[in-house]
Amino acid sequence: MPPEPYDKIPSTAFSPEEQSLLDYHRNNLYGGSYYKDPETGRITTINVIGITGPDGRIYNVPGYFGDGKMLEGDERNNAAKDYAELIGWSEFPSYGTGAEANSAAQTMHGAIESDMNTWPGGSR
Question: At what angle do helices 98-118 and 16-31 cross, to 10 degrees?
Answer without folding.
Answer: 40
